[in-house]
Model the fold of this input.
Amino acid sequence: MSSDDAPFLPDPDQMAAGLRTALPFFRQIDWQAETGSTNADLLARARQAHGAVARPWLLGTHLQTQGRGRAGRTWQNRVGANLMFSCAFDVFLPARQLPTLAPLIGLASCQALRQQISPEHRSRLNMKWPNDLQWDHAKLAGILIESTRSSTAQVADHHLIIIGMGLNLLDARALSLSLDRNVADWARLAATDIQAAQSDAVTLAACAARAWYEALNQATAHGFADLPARYAQVDGLAGQPLDVIDAGKLRQTGIACGIDTQGRLLLRNADGVHPVSVGEISVRLRR
Done:
């Protein structure tokens, strides 16, 4: 498959049917032709729910008209060019630990998608903190995580977590030109990797959703002690000189050296090692 190939998304009914077979432990799976935002739709659905609610839920779409990224960014898409879906989960964690889910879900997604790539190429797929996925350091997918109190919560630690992913299937060349930065798509992977070429849209969505479900269950049961070691396996920033920019201002500079158990990025500079929890990360070119 090349970047000029036709989209390989089946129709919405076929997507939903394939995912219901692949994810039998999900309680509700739907795929639409078009919607505003799958994250917003799942959040609205959860707020309308009364009485006992059975989750996880998955909602995907061929076209998002009001898609959102991190920091409230909007973005455009066309049918077939992106794999876009969200999942809603009930999570039982203290509120202070919820920010840690961003890198956790990012690395779980990266590890899951690596299994769809031949072993010799898997290291080319890595993660940019907090949860962007990169192929050869070009953005392949973005993840948006939102949380709210569950409408059926009986205990303080019961939260509704909605995870949305947008994975580029096609159009990387046009996006790179329009955004003036490197963008990757699954077609680029498939052109160089025979195993990636065999992965269809149902497989890609199912492996990510399954990884999220397992990662959340693991974190709930065992915490985040192993998070730094797991992150190191997919860390695309390790050893890179970085600038941290927040609200348009340079807040911190240093060399990336992993994350801590709270999921915070660690930067080393002349003053020591500093945790970073907010801001945009800019990789400075080495001279």
User: Anything to note?
Assistant: The chain has two domains: 12-232, 241-283. The domain at 241-283 is CATH 2.30.30.100 (SH3 type barrels.). Residues 8 and 200 are 7 Å apart (CA to CA).
